[in-house]
């Protein structure tokens, strides 16, 4: 029986497929005919999206048995995956790049790097005291792969890290403990997945309980933060924020977040490090090995 894989061209590069495997290289699922996409058994979703929506693309996959994402997040895919189809994500591929950006955003906010960037643009030599990351308490909300990678880096800067997860375990606090933990933190770092329990986790009450001059860093999902409440709190100047993700996203050009002086924004670039390509390709090749051998796949998302 022949098997049919659809995947972006760079993910199949260097892989030796058995003779009975048909491979369709595709970077935009909209380019495929209904017959081709409907015949696929294993589909690797394009990393940079498609002209088709996820829902439209999956609806065309009549024979699919495995859908593999190239992202750690899967909340935009899972609702449309049939119960008899295996969904796998790319957990672990983005850990280092995303955790690096989380630390970079934290450092940039504490050291007031926008002030230095403006001085450079103005050709103005300006020396000023700023805050250091050393000796700061970082409340790390979300303790999966990326959270653990961030903790490792933060400890290297001499921080006190307080990890928080859904349930308590050794040296990790439960999310229910947040009301007592938030006021103690100099930095609140969000690395949680998007699920019903995390939507608007950071609301007006949460923000009001953050200590003066603290920093909110979000490399999770925009919906984890109530944007209107964040804008209102930032306008007081009491706290600052460094955001890789926002709600809505992309952030409209006229959105007030762009203009606030105490905000740093990157455009959802957390996983966009150059290590991604080789790591993702290695993961996909490993998944091909397992699938073709009839073995259980890695990073299967429970349906």
Task: Give an overview in words.
It is a single chain. With 303 residues, the chain is an alpha/beta fold. The protein is 29% helix and 16% strand. The protein contains ten helices and twelve strands. It has helices spanning 9-12, 34-39, 54-59, 95-110, 113-121, 145-156, 178-181, 204-209, 227-235, 276-292, and strands at 3-7, 21-25, 42-44, 66-68, 86-88, 137-141, 160-165, 173-174, 187-190, 215-218, 240-243, 263-265. The strands form two sheets. A seven-stranded parallel sheet has the order 8-7-6-9-10-11-12, with helices on one face. It has a five-stranded parallel sheet with strand order 2-1-3-4-5. Helix 6 links the parallel strand 6 and strand 7. The two termini are 27 Å apart.
- Rg measurement, Å: 22 Å
The run of helices and strands is: EHEHEHEEHHEHEEHEHEHEEH
CATH-defined topology of the largest domain: Rossmann fold
- Could you say which structural class the secondary elements and strand pairing correspond to? alpha/beta
Q: Please identify which CATH superfamily of the largest domain we are dealing with.
A: NAD(P)-binding Rossmann-like Domain
Q: Which blocks of ≥5 consecutive residues have pLDDT under 50?
A: none
Number of domains: 2
**Biggest sheet record:** 7 strands, parallel
Helix tally? 10
The CATH architecture assignment of the largest domain turns out to be: 3-Layer(aba) Sandwich
Average pLDDT works out at 96
CATH C-level class of the largest domain is Alpha Beta
| Silhouette | elongated
Helix content: 25-40%
Strand content: 15-25%
Count of strand segments: 12
